[in-house]
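WARN retry 2 of 3 for item q-0093 after timeout on previous attempt; input resubmitted unchanged.
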Amino acid sequence: MNLEAIYSNMKEKAANLDPIGATLKMVVDEHVVYVDGTGDTNEVSQEDKEADCVISTSMDTMKELLSGNSNPMMAVMMGKVKIKGDMGVAMKVQSLLA
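OK item q-0093 returned
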């Protein structure tokens, strides 16, 4: 799985979910996926803008999380995933990736 697959997957999932009511930026290595859920729909782009919540990780860790080989909470506790900002928004990420 590469960044384009992650981006496409998030865009498809976000279109079918209620707006998250906030902005979210995922930084995977040096790449950005931005979700703006403040309007009537969740808009997904690759813009690097300020967000209510920023989640940073590596592509290797992202692959482990998406495959189910890694527990998200353990990844955060081990420092493989870093979260800044609104933790409530961070909790909604699983619905965008699952």
